[in-house]
Design brief:
With 410 residues, the protein is mainly β. 8% of the residues lie in helices and 41% in strands. It has a six-stranded antiparallel sheet, with no helix packed on it. Strands 3-4-9-5-8-7 form a six-stranded mixed β-barrel. A six-stranded mixed barrel has the order 14-15-20-16-19-18.
Length: 410
């Protein structure tokens, strides 16, 4: 559930709110039936006699899934996050709904702890399906909202996947929530078994750069395409001979610097992705996995999550329009607010480092457009991922104008 891009330190959702110990979901793993599928259904979303109930899906800043939901009858904008063991409600919304008083708990993440409250019997509606959660977590998501630049009221965790089958059509920016077991498979879909780690994290087996398959968390809430433990990276020489740089991840435990590089290939169930921006994390604490597959990599495929059945189904996107695996070419690690982008990290060897940028500077305009509350709603945020050799004009607080030439620095 990392909220970061290579070269872009933002609040780590996984570190900020923690992975909930013992709050995971269980699945009965078996072998899915490879149903015979008629040729005219290849490339379609085949749910047999059922028609997918498609709902709009926003891919905000290219790496965060936002959906409209209702909690206790109140409308919310929520992050879809399979990496969180339980759904999490922002404390301000919980107060408004009269839900703020609950059991005091401390949750542990991959690098820190946070005090939260536990509330019971919470009704959540997503699409046209309603689920009554046995419990949900109330936590302060203010830092998450501040880093993202938009108010986040709720994280919909893995508990919302139980009993449901989640179809994700990234190319057409839509999702459908169907009953578990309703997807029969087909010739164009690859079933990949979901495992459960020591902290109930969902994981799949994947082969990295031609090595033997290893367990990797699969996490729709992670904005990093691929993150690997530095121990695994070093043991397999994945960064050896490759251009590398740095990024920063921040959470309740502070800010940690991580390595960034390109992984040439990753295979899941025989399906491959290439040239993957990767974080090397020296503080990876999961004992069950060696890394994490995030939304930008999952978004290279059409995907159907059936956690209860114990499988995620993948195929090449029928829309021929997968999510881009964004690669930063500026070297500026930024935190967004309503009026400015604050520089919080300078990547080693990057254009920003060579141009003399400093931590603490505030960017108020990008190519003449002001940084405001619409920054993450439109396409302005995309400037750092432009073509190499593009020149970006950045207005600094105080009326100073600077130019930054983008380039591939890792």
């Amino acid at each position: 559930m990392l909220f970061a891009q290579p070269g872009t330190p933002r609040v780590s959702r996984r570190s900020l709110i923690g992975r909930l110990l013992g709050f995971g979901v269980s699945a009965a793993v078996g072998t899915p039936g490879l149903a015979t599928i008629a040729p005219h259904l290849v490339g379609q979303w085949n749910f047999g006699p059922l028609s997918p109930d498609w709902q709009p899906l926003e891919v905000a800043t290219g790496d965060t899934l936002l959906v409209k939901a209702r909690v206790a009858g109140s409308p919310v904008e929520a992050v879809l996050d399979s990496g969180s063991g339980a759904s999490i409600i922002d404390v301000s919304l919980a107060r408004t709904l009269g839900m703020a008083d609950g059991e005091r708990r401390t949750i542990s993440g991959l690098g820190g702890k946070a005090a939260v409250r536990l509330i019971h019997d919470v009704e959540v509606q997503l699409g046209h399906r309603t689920r009554r959660l046995q419990f949900a977590v109330v936590a302060d998501l203010g830092a998450l909202s501040a880093a993202f630049g938009r108010r986040i009221n709720m994280l919909l965790g893995a508990d919302m996947f139980v009993g449901n089958c989640m179809a994700l059509d990234f190319g057409n920016r839509q999702f459908a929530l169907m009953p578990t077991g309703s997807f029969p498979g087909g010739a164009d879909w690859t079933p990949v078994a979901l495992g459960h780690g020591a902290k109930q994290e969902l994981y799949v087996s994947a082969a990295i750069a031609g090595s033997s398959a290893v367990p990797l968390m699969i996490d729709l809430g992670s904005s990093a395409a691929l993150m690997l433990s530095s121990a695994y990276v070093d043991a397999h020489g994945l960064a050896r001979g490759r251009a590398t740089s740095t990024a920063a991840l921040g959470g309740v435990e502070g800010v940690a610097t991580v390595d960034v590089f390109i992984t040439p290939k990753l295979e899941i169930g025989g399906l491959a992705a290439w040239n993957i921006p990767t974080l090397g994390n020296r503080n990876w604490l999961s004992t069950s996995t060696v890394g994490n597959i995030g939304l930008p990599l999952i978004g290279q495929f059409d995907a159907i999550f059936d956690v209860t059945a114990g499988f995620v189904w993948l195929r090449r996107p029928a829309s021929r329009n997968p999510l881009p695996m964004l690669k930063d070419r500026s070297g500026l690690g930024l935190s967004a607010s309503e009026h400015a982008l604050t520089v919080v990290h300078i990547a080693i060897g990057s254009p920003a480092a060579k141009a003399g940028w400093s931590v603490g500077e505030h960017i108020v305009t990008v190519n003449g457009h002001p940084v405001d509350t619409d920054y993450t709603h439109g396409s302005l945020w995309n400037w750092r991922f432009g073509r190499s050799d593009s020149v970006i004009k950045l207005g600094i607080e105080g009326g100073i104008m600077r130019e930054l030439r983008l380039s591939d620095y890792y």
